[in-house]
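Work Package 4 report. The design task specified in the project plan requires that, given a folded chain encoded as structure tokens, an amino acid be chosen for each position. We show below one input record used in the internal validation round.
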């Protein structure tokens, strides 16, 4: 949208970079879905033998990173 409003070479470059970023993001999301499907199929196949391993993997995937400590002076 930016390149259609500004009509400059820089705006076109930024627009292309944004589109490439969204394409990469979509590919990353698809690969994560594929990974989740593969883990589920393996879980069904080896459920009893590796249930602890699959539980740990699921926990790592769904875990949120710990909050970062703020750096610097804060009143």
């Amino acid at each position: 949208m930016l390149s259609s409003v500004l009509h400059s070479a820089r705006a076109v470059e930024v627009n292309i970079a944004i589109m490439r970023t969204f394409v990469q993001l979509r590919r990353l999301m698809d690969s994560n879905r594929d990974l989740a499907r593969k883990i589920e199929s393996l879980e069904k196949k080896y459920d009893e033998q590796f249930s602890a391993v699959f539980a740990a993997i699921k926990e790592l995937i769904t875990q949120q990173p710990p909050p970062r400590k703020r750096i610097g002076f804060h009143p």
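DSSP finds three helices and no strands in the chain. Validation will be extended to a larger panel in the next phase.
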